[in-house]
Design goal:
single chain, about 80 residues, mainly beta, 6 strands, elongated
């Protein structure tokens, strides 16, 4: 299909959003490496760079509000994009 061909030719930009309450080791960076199939059809990142998948990330911290036992509580969260 046209979408599969565009993905294979790397003409598609993909964005992922992740939330975490933990502080990352870096505020921004790039992860790069070849992807291989692991057990149970999972993917594994390799150190080799023959046909690497490249992912850049940035993070932003903010305080979110929540109710715990009917009391407002500030929760530090980080967004990774």
């Amino acid at each position: 299909s046209e979408i599969m061909q565009a993905l294979a030719e790397r003409r598609v930009a993909k964005y992922y959003v992740a939330l975490s309450d933990k502080k990352p080791s870096k505020k921004m960076g790039t992860i790069s490496g070849d992807m291989t199939r692991g057990r149970r059809s999972t993917w594994r990142l390799q150190r080799s760079q023959e046909n690497p998948a490249v992912t850049s990330f940035v993070q932003h911290s903010f305080n979110a509000a929540a109710l715990i036992d009917d009391q407002p509580v500030k929760l530090p969260l980080r967004i990774f994009l």
